[in-house]
User: Fold these one by one.
Assistant:
Number 1:
Amino acid sequence: MPVTTLLPFTATPNRKSASPTSFRLTEKFILLLVFSAFITLCFGAIFFLPDSSKLLSGVFFRSASVETATRTGIDSGSIGTGNADKMLAKIRKDHEDALIEAKDTLQKHPEDIKKDIKNDKDQVAQGVVKGGKGDGLPIIEYVRPPGVIGREPSDPDTKEKRAKIKEMMQFSWDNYKRYAWGFNELRPVSKQGHSSNLFGGLKGATIVDALDTLYIMEMYEEFEAATEWVVKNLDFNMNTEISVFEVNIRFVGGLLSAYYLSGKEVFSQGQHNLPAGVGSAALACGVAEGKGCQRQLSVSVFGMSPQQTEDSGSCLPLPSAHPRSVTHTHTHKTPTGIPWALLNMKSGIGRNWPWASGGSSILAEYGTLHLEFMHLSKLSGNPAFAEKVMNIRKVLNRLDKPSGGLYPNYLNPNSGQWGQHHVSVGGLGDSFYEYLLKAWIMSDKSDEEGKKLYYDALQAIEKNLIRKSSGGLTYIAEWKGGLLEHKMGHLTCFAGGMIALGADGAPDQQTGHHMELAAEITRTCHESYARTNLKLGPEAFRFDGGVEAIATRQNEKYFILRPEVIETYMYMWRFTHDPKYRQWGWEAVQALEQHCRVEGGYSGVRDVYASNPNHDDVQQSFYLAETLKYLYLLFSEDDHLPFEHWVFNTEAHPLPIIKKDFSSNQANEVE
Ligand code: DMJ
């Protein structure tokens, strides 16, 4: 193509024109037109372009109706719902308030006005001015969701039982504090600290995991001590390899919850340059208030490196992201965006578990980031977190699913292909299904995709994995390339609670059927406890070789203080108020007291069929985060952390439902 044909016509030397004068006039006219169009555009941009919170809401739930009522300014939720009247009323009210404020100010003494101005300036300098963090982060106003504080149960027996459970928490905590303070977990028999390699060199898993339980049980002194430890010691800036899943559900979930329950700025506010690369999720930053950013956790969950950041004033242990520091480092990017299981927090180098089929990532790990990451985007104003977890769904949606919609536990993050066709609602699969349902609920039921994925998956599970034993016990088996292994894990028992939680929204009038299914699974899980000597459930139980709900292999007979069965009792109690669920929960309390309580805390046991317990000497952090919390809620009133306002992450950390309707957020302010 000749160059001249690429030039604008005014530059073409042999272009014909009527005369030089008329040509200039035309040109002037065109220029005038262009200029006025430009001015109109500028005005249009100023007055009509949507604000950033609206754009963000689109990323969250693919609907403009997402609330952002915790931010200051006009509520975009009300815009999104098309409720123009509400919006106009709010604008009018803001305007009137501003006039009143201005009038008040004018009536002030000049010296007072000067003082106010100086105050404001100081606050801006510290980055803590109301409604702003001084570092470009979005403006978040803390609005406490309802039901944080529970009432005493009216029934004296229930009250006494609840008090007993609080005493168990006190005992676990006091012993951890006495013998293992700062370690990840307590060894209650040998009375020393314990650190599992799931957390690499990170410290304080029990402290972070227990924060919200302490708050919920109104153990405020202990909560303060835990907060102080977090402020002074929680350190993510380490050259260590961690499990992304474990750190997300326990540390990120724990800190998010502590923030939402307490409103404490130390968990939420700060100014910091977190490396939040698109593809590199900066998960947390912790530091003593006002001391400079000593700690950060930037996790290349999606396979990209974090970057070092400079100290920049007060930081927070809340997972957060700074839009200014969004960096694109593609060094370790996985081609699919499916994250690694393990990550070095300093180098950002990720890899998968060596035992995982063909270098695969695990369904229950990469599928259990959604709730926390949506809240990270909401709090930080950085949509990268939300985008990353939404991308996981996209990858999964493109894949063929075996047997009409099953999700294999293994997925290769490089090829985007399934690994072994092994399907489980227990270990390796479990919380993926839980997060599909809870993503829908947490979005105030606007995440239609999450809803559909959940109910479709459950339908495939019911068809392929759920069976009834000859003795009439319903169980969820494991599926291996089309063959069933008639085994159910303790972990799988969470499914009773999940199915009950989702029953209300079940399609095709299946609510009743789902509730029955949930109740049957709960009964089976209770049987797995009842058929042991210690009245505690084995890690896995089988329905073959002439047994039902009994562990037959020695390495499946242990109990490590897991919460899933009690979690399911709690959901079933809330939905049915059938007293047997409290009774079953109380049986578990008695068994824990009798067989797991030792001088220095609570310990797991190696064989639930033995006549005397052989202790494993570990007080798991999830015992405080989940088992004791669910027990306490089982004996609490329903309006303590009500399901209309809260969703529990898979580690039992309550996260508020992100309301799409502004008026219900206002209601949230009234406790
Ligand atoms: C917890 O860490 C979480 O519930 C997770 O989803 C799987 N199980 C353990 C406790 O059993």
Note: The CA atoms of residues 497 and 571 lie 5 Å apart.
Number 2:
Amino acid sequence: MKLLVTGGAGFIGSEFVRMTLRTHPEDEVVVLDKLTYAGNRANLAPVESDARFRFVQGDIADRDLVNDLAGTVDVIVNFAAESHVDRSLESPGQFIQTDVHGVYVLLEAARSSRHARFLQVSTDEVYGDVTTGRSVETDLLSPRSPYSASKAGGELLIWSYRTSYGFPAIITRGSNTYGQYQFPEKIIPLFITNAIDDRPLPIYGNGQAVRDYLFVEDHCSGIDTALRKGSPGENYNVGIGTEINGITVADTILRLLGKPDALKEHVRDRLGHDQRYAIDTAKLRGLGWEPSVTFEEGMKRTVDWYVANEEWWRPLKSRDFWEFYERNYRPQDEPVSKG
Ligand code: NAD
Ligand code: TYD
């Protein structure tokens, strides 16, 4: 199989590329990635010399480029997105451009080149805040942040292509993912890298919001299962089923690094903070998939990786990073900027 992996230089996409080339020796992979602040060619260093791998820098919204590439592959797997909720609250425009319009450009290219498979990597955040129970794939979408709304918008376009054109797209909805090579803005890599440097861990509000933290290798094996064994036109949740709050994330990291409790710091809550995501994953498990890494084991591996790979993450905590940090974590009495 020849795959076009868009957004393949990001956190989850690069894991998927490394895993695909390792576990499917007959496959070839072309990565298309814009290399935004979150994209990093270094994430692909382990496969750069593989003859079955090719990298193209470019935008999924570039119609000519996407049309050219789509004609050369059997499958498109789309990871490309703006992916950070806090950045979407500050400036939503680029999220709509990539996560909605970019998906449209990919769909048009895929439709005209009659692709057998198209897989969209979506998120459990499209279900919105889930007070009780677990979201199943047929639930209505109820996104509440510009990020999750733009991901839901991309999904709705795909739904319409399924209905209108019989387009055989699969959608996966993964839960919060963590592990090696994650840009240090999401909670787990941010807290690990801050703790290594004895900086405070900024916990939003009371730290009680829960997420289903999924190790990146399990997320990628879930996507791989949906791609190869899933039915066209279907959606699949991917998660492990845990409910871990922000305080527990901070406590686990401080314990693993042997750092003091005093590094925990409660800061102004996120606007519209979703308090709980929880998904039912029976449908994907029915295809034979199951996660293999517990939260405790995944956290240990992740902390060890960041300790051993400072040369990877230190350059990412750049001037731009700290400017965003200053704006995002400013004290409560200062006004919130409008994006
Ligand atoms: P990431 O931000 O680490 O990577 C995104 C990648 O997409 C980067 O390499 C970036 O350069 C690239 N990109 C952005 N805009 C582009 C464009 N217009 N054209 C081409 N490339 C572009 O994100 P991630 O955490 O790896 O997430 C990957 C996908 O998985 C996203 O679609 C996200 O919505 C979804 N997802 C993420 C999580 C999570 O917890 N991180 C959970 C569920 C689903
Ligand atoms: P995040 O990693 O941004 O993922 P998402 O918002 O997409 O779920 O946040 C995960 C949880 O951690 C969420 O409840 C918000 C919280 N959080 C903090 O408490 N402090 C932080 O600095 C960040 C980035 C997140």
Note: The first strand starts at residue 2 and ends at 6.
